[in-house]
Structure formats: C-alpha cells, structure tokens
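Quick start: read one record
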Amino acid sequence: MRKAAETKSGYKSFPRNFWTVIVMEFFERGSYYGVMSVLSIYLIMSPGEGGLGFSKEGVGAIKSTITPLLYLLPILAGALADRFGYRRTLMMAFTVMSTGYFLTSLSSSYSLVFLSLILMAVGAGFFKPVISGTIARVTDENNSTLGFGIFYWSINLGAFIFPLILVPFLKGIGWNYIFIMAAVGTGSMLLLNLFVYKEPPRPASTKPLSEVLKGILMVLKDYRFVLMIVIYSGFWILYFQMFDTVLWYLKEYMDMTPVNNFVNRFLSLFVENPSWKFDTEHVTVINAGAIIALQLVVSSIVKKTPALPTMIVGIAMGTLGMGILAISTYAWVFIAGLIVFSIGEMTAHPKFISYIGLIAPPDKKALYLGYSFLYGVIGSGIGGILGATLYVKFVDEMGRPGLLWFIFSMIGVATIIGLLLFNRYLKPKAA
C-alpha cells in the first residue's frame, strides 16, 4: 500500500480535504471580490440610483478599517484554530461572514453598514489561516508547490468569475442582491464544513496566545524588517486604489464605448444584438484575469532573477500602470494601465515573499514570513483614507484627476527609492 501511495503524483496526490478547502476558497473569495468590485460605488451612489449616498471620506474610513482586519486577524485566528479545531473555526467564520454580508444587504444607515462589514471582515479574517493551514497539513514537499499553486488560482478564479458573471446580473435586479449572493455563497459552505470537511491532525503542540504576542513583539523589534514592510506597503497603497478611487474615476470620468463596441462585435459572432458594457466590477475582472493568464509566464521569466531587483522592476511597472491613467481618459488607455499594473503586481509580490525569507534570521524564517503580510495592514489602512481624501480634493473639487494619479505614481517612485536605499545600507549579508 505504501508503494502504491508513493507512486501518486500531480492532482491525484491530493486527498479529499484538499479539494474541499479549494472549493471553500473559491466561493469565499468569489463572494468577497464580487462585493469588493462594486462596494465603493454602491456606498456613494445616491439612493435614487440604488446606492446609499455616503460620502467618499466615509467610504474611505470604512475601507481603512475592514481591509486591515483581513490582514491582521489571521495572526490570532491561526493560533485559536490550532487550539480549538479547524472545523469549529470554519463554522464560526462562515456564520459570521454570511451574517455580515446579509445584514449589509438590509442596512442603509452608515453605522449599521459599517458594523455589518466589520462582521464580514472578522469572519474572513478567521477563515484565511484555516484554509492555508489545511493545505499545509495535507501536502508534503512533493506536492506542496502544486497545492498552493492551485490554491492561488482558486482565489483568482473566484475573483474573475463572480464579478464577470454574477455581479452584472444581480445589479439589474437590485444592488443589495450582490450582498445576498455573498451571504449565500459563504453560508452554503457551512454544509461542506459539516458533511465533507474532516478535521486534520492537530500539531503535537499548539502555541498559546501569549506566545503569539511574544512573536509579534520579537518581530517588531527588528527595525530592518519593520522598515522593509513599511517601504513595501507603499506599493500596496497603490494596489488598494483599484477598489476605491479607480472605480470612482471610471464611473465619473471614463467613456468605455470603444471597449464596449469591441466586445459586442466579438459577442455578436455568438449571440444576436449583444449589449455588454464595461462597468466597475470589470476592473477586478481584468486584474484577476491577467493573473490567471500571465502569472505562470511571469513566474517562469523571473524564477532565477535576484529578489530585490525583480521587486523593484515589478513595482516600477505597477507605478507605470498607475501613471498611465493620468495620460488620457481614452478607454483603451485605461485598460492598458490596469493590465500593466497587474503585471507589476504579479512580478513584485512573489519576489517580496522570497526576499523576506532571505533577510530573516536563519532560525526565524517561518516567523518572519508569518508576519510579512503586515504590508497589507499598512497599505490598506492608509490607502482607503488617503485615496478618498485626495480624490475629493483633486478630482471632485479641482477637476484634475491626472494630478491624483501623478501623486500615487510618486508614492510608487518613493517606494522604489526606499527599496534601493534599504538594499544599499540595511540589507543583511545573507540577502
């Protein structure tokens, strides 16, 4: 039996639990990105248009609260899941997440929407480490690379399909149905958790929360690591604009008729009188679609290149993509900016993870990699409020969107300069 098991390779090497959490990840991320692809528009649209009529600054405060939670909570959630069990944690996560989405669909006041979205973020924050933890426990050195590759693809496949297909259809019925869709998409995963998912073997010893907090303090005492995270988070200030200011800009400034005509000419080969329109949810579709189509190609090109220079090239491309938005309001220029930014993201981020492994002390690599996601806490925490404030100032009040994208591009340039200086003066010898 052992010999037969050893001959298994590729997709056949994964147990049922692996595919179960991949399905969970697909529906959870599809629900999340389906909502996030339009949330900032829904919140600012007037009630007459089907929205809630909040201010952009108010939306910025919401986004600068809920998104950092998604990056911060997994620190504690992972330790709690190890202690109390993965199935229990998933039960809580799906229940809270689904409740948050559903309450958002019913709420119209700012405070209730804010609280409902915090519930959603808490559920999602507890969900994330359980899925990656399960994959880590059901794979080994022979198939873990493929396993996490499938995991990464499931994220982007959900982020591609849900906004592309479900969101446009549900908007036609009512914007609140997008949140009901997310509530159903995440809530239905409770059935998988109850009847299909199996509790993986627990580790021989689990970390108490006190040890987790000690680990945080230990990492935060390393000024090199903290500075590296702070510098890199500059790029993620740009990334999170894709869910806020870029969507507002598209809705208020862009005429996507050339893209609509091109797509409808193609669709007319298959259906009569197509009426497809590029809308805010398609920004997320382009980002996820570019990653699905090009990540393997980009990864193969840069697999042997040094980590930091590759990061800088990726961030430079992302910065260029943001700068392209300042050139023109022509539809294809806008699309080009989104694609270039996405290529920059998929070039820089894998190498960032690699670089953290290089600069971490040899006996603390796992610990450092575990806290490297703090870039998302900083980037989203600053990006939501900063983006809303700058948009109101330079676009709504001054009518100069090009200046907005120039400022964000300069944040990208500052990130590149910061990385160059870090590499020159603070990089550990091991890197």
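The first helix runs from residue 2 to 7.
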